[in-house]
Amino acid sequence: MDRLKAPARLMIVSDLDHTMVDHHDTENLSLLRFNSLWEANYRHDSLLVFSTGRSPTLYKELRKEKPMLTPDITIMSVGTEITYGNSMVPDDGWVEVLNKKWDRNVVKEEASKFSELKLQAETEQRPHKVSFYVEKDKAQAVTKALSEVYEKHGLEVKIIYSGGMDLDILPQGAGKGQALAYLLKKFKTEGSSPVNTLVCGDSGNDAELFSIPEVYGVMVSNAQEELLQWHAENAKGNTRIIHATERCAAGIIQAIGHFKLGPNMPPRDIADFSDYKLENPNPGHEVVKFFLFYEKWRRAEVENSAVYLASLKADCCPSGTFVHPSGVEQSLPECINGLRSSYGDKQGKQFRVWVDGVLATQVGSDTWLVKFDKWELSGEERHATKTTAVISSKGSDVSYGFTWIRVHQTWYKGYEGKDDTTWHF
């Protein structure tokens, strides 16, 4: 699938802080559960969009702190910036839209006359966003007065108050909702409208997302009062919007199931894969399954049984090879044997493994080239490799499972391992 030119089976548009990312979940389990679900079942034919109030600087900081996936599209700075892919290519068409009736200098100058407003950090000031802090009890009066001032200047601005302290001033045509509407219109023009779209949020600056016609919506269980109030006043009878009973990413998973948008069983929740049969097996699920077992094995969350390793070896070609990120080529079955000595070496420790951007290309009638980033978090250290795997189906179709033929890893720049001997796969 050309990720942006084919109609997505599902497009998830999610806020980050306190929606996709739960800052109270120190193990990040909710986020990791979502990651496994997305990479196993959706990455190959769906789109993931992050819509955040964060500036690019703070967004990149969050990605370093949390085990987040790479989105296909990133909407930042409260809907004033749209970028594509890991390289974050900007959408120039959106910039042109926002330039209409917007004068940043006048906006900032007039706002600075209000003593109630405290300018946020320079990183949060963007070409189409001027951001302040304001006390909750003064927000409404300041917003009203500012609106009148800008109207006299002939400017069309939007003032958004959220999070109990953030006040953002944007062009009238900006915002999370308008950015999403722009994308949906763009997809429709190109004949690639998503089959279903699910928007996810927790605060006031997410309200616009739920106003877009034809989308499904989930307010996570920990949604703030300002969003719940907006819903009560504007969308109470809308059955396409739910208030989840689960927090953050778990609430998003809940919504996928509630609206029947596709599979909603995260592979991370499955205790024993030998008893689990996927309805539509795919290479992405095989990759997720393998590395989840690898994590559980080292954390001693599965039984120390030769049966498990024998099953893994049965999924490897006898002549299969593994190229370690150090450059050393090894026998794939022998690498599986080597796991015996690492059983439980991370028991009781902070150790998590996840994969990101799993994309498979069919290169033969029964063979796929699969590319992805593989991440390990061990204590405070995070390491990653760019990984390429060749796998084939065991029988006439993928329902018989897959065989690993070759795995090749190279260190991800900036996340190299210090000790090659501790990196198994």
TrEMBL record:
Residues 9-260 form the Sucrose phosphatase-like domain. Keywords: Hydrolase, Magnesium. Coiled coil: none annotated. Residues 283-412 form the Sucrose-phosphatase C-terminal domain. Pathway: Glycan biosynthesis; sucrose biosynthesis; sucrose from D-fructose 6-phosphate and UDP-alpha-D-glucose: step 2/2. Its EC number is 3.1.3.24. Belongs to the sucrose phosphatase family. Catalyzes the final step of sucrose synthesis. NCBIfam families: HAD-SF-IIB (TIGR01484), SPP-subfamily (TIGR01482), SPP_plant-cyano (TIGR01485). Homodimer. This is Sucrose-phosphatase.
